Amino acid sequence: MSATEAFVAGPRTTIAGSPTGPLAGLGFAVKDLIDIAGVPTHGGNPDWSRYAGIPSQHAWVVQTLLEAGASVVGKTITDEVSLGILGENVFDGTPLNPAAPDRVPGGSSSGSASAVAQGLCDFALGTDSGGSVRVPASFCGLYGIRPTHGRIDFSGITVQSPSADTCGWFARDAEMFARVGEVLLQGKLPTTLPTRLLIATDAWGFADPEVQDALLKLRHRLSSLIGHTEEVVMATPGLSVWQRAQRVLQSSESAKTFAPWLDACNPRMAYSVARNLTIGSMISEAERSAASLMRIEARARLAYLLPKGTILCLPTTPFPAPLKDLPISVLAPLRERISCLTSHGGLTGVPQVSIPGGLVGGAPVGLSIIAGRGCDLDLLAVAAKLARM
Amino acid sequence: MSATEAFVAGPRTTIAGSPTGPLAGLGFAVKDLIDIAGVPTHGGNPDWSRYAGIPSQHAWVVQTLLEAGASVVGKTITDEVSLGILGENVFDGTPLNPAAPDRVPGGSSSGSASAVAQGLCDFALGTDSGGSVRVPASFCGLYGIRPTHGRIDFSGITVQSPSADTCGWFARDAEMFARVGEVLLQGKLPTTLPTRLLIATDAWGFADPEVQDALLKLRHRLSSLIGHTEEVVMATPGLSVWQRAQRVLQSSESAKTFAPWLDACNPRMAYSVARNLTIGSMISEAERSAASLMRIEARARLAYLLPKGTILCLPTTPFPAPLKDLPISVLAPLRERISCLTSHGGLTGVPQVSIPGGLVGGAPVGLSIIAGRGCDLDLLAVAAKLARM
User: Looking at this predicted complex, what is its ipTM?
Assistant: First the structure.
């Protein structure tokens, strides 16, 4: 694989967008989990498209962006069927993280983040169920959004865990990031900003001290921008407790989603992916049921903390991107730790934007802001204003 | 894959044997789990040889056969790292079962059985931990042997479950089968045959009625040959109890064997193989310990039943080869049922020979004879004499 690779192997899929529209002239990359009519969606696995069939129409997000004037410049590498947050695919390779070439790009929207970070497109589509936009945004030094769950039409996108799946995007700068948002969220950036900022002390404490230090300057700018700032504990039962609940929900849900495929096709997979699907298939109904109750509580907690006009900030990831090619036994606990800072997304459905926040040992880390459900445009407005400060 | 495929892809590995010796002029195929110096041993998985490295010398069995005059004609397809008894490899394809082309060949020594059955070589080497020679012998209508555990030097062969691994071979006729045996077992066929035949009523009852019927004629010939015949229950706690014990032992052992590879390389695998390795890694020490006690009891049971001069006969498999490309959910219970008739091998280490026994719906099934540990040559002598009756 060449050092600039971010796109899937084979002829590059390109589609010209409408000549006019708010995004006319821009080029975007599409995670190969998102349908383009007539082109197999490989989902990062050599045996997925044979099962899924050739899509007959574009995913809603692709169609909407084409109509807005943007052009498809290619489909990008993804972790297998979106199960992964590190961005190492044993079949397609590891897309380059140009900000830290010896490190993983993050996943599962690895190729989309890589393509944007390398300047191979203006923006790129990804999906985020457990952190698959937020983590690569943090690791590659990009803007990335996980929208409110259910806000953006998911039709034509490979389902993993329906109760957590979202479609988001990456950009290198806040202005481009917001322009795409106005199209996909079908609204205008608000002119008034939130007025209350919460600092999630539990989430900050969970990050490496170097990450906290690296993000502090941006956090202070954010605090100046918003004004009233206060400290809160975000996950009252504990971030690790939320993480476990969401792992139960997402693992059992994804195991259920892919069970018919696994049974019928016995696909080739990375051992680690098959292992996680196997463990997911063994989760008991009692455990799933307990996690569902915790989800109700977590949703209520964030709804209480985040009325309209309030946002919360936290580090996107507890550390910068790990090195490439580490053994499973080293990566597994890192993955678990990362998901302690991302699980609230799938668990509660709130929107989150990751902003390039600083460098640790030369590698990027992101600062995240979250808002109440439906307040996606508020987050984009904050990010845009912060960039102009 | 062409319909005659049994060998691994790429240039055919050939080595001329010694010009003289008891096997001079014969050609044999080598399961790609067995080392040939300077040639990668792929073990049926695209990421195994990278980890295992290039062997610097031939496996003992290969070296011994070459010195006896036989020549290597190629390396054959195997189930991934020998984990499978059906013979479907998602990377290399399913070798042809020429006796039943719409059915699997059996595995894991699938390509070796296929090559012999197709007449592409005179005999072929396989390995048998849980049934990997006996099952393809039954399904392809061949002679096949699982020797006494520990009798044939296993050096240079990919280890799966050391307490169960053996190296065996296939041939189309009993004479060829015995000639190879005299070389690999380093002894002469005895001139006196066993004088007591046990019919394992539990094992016969476990086979489909059609299989019992198809094997009855050969069983009667065997009974005439040996003379004194009596019925016994082979597995006093039950064949299914022995199967479960051996599954625990072999699954936990193979998971332990491959753990360092899985951790370091995160290999591409069939989902089903990765799933079984994952389940194997979760077996508790208490369960393993209970199965070890059952192994002691099973060994004592067969030692009691099979003094020198006594052999026992049973169907090799409960049914003929299943159709190709069935879903995992259909194959898994079939695999479990097959292993009820094969688990005594890994559990107790006794030698077993499968003899072409008859046809069911046009597909072959084998009749097996087993003897006490070390009595391998007695079984070959019985098979040879039976063929001349």
Answer: 0.90
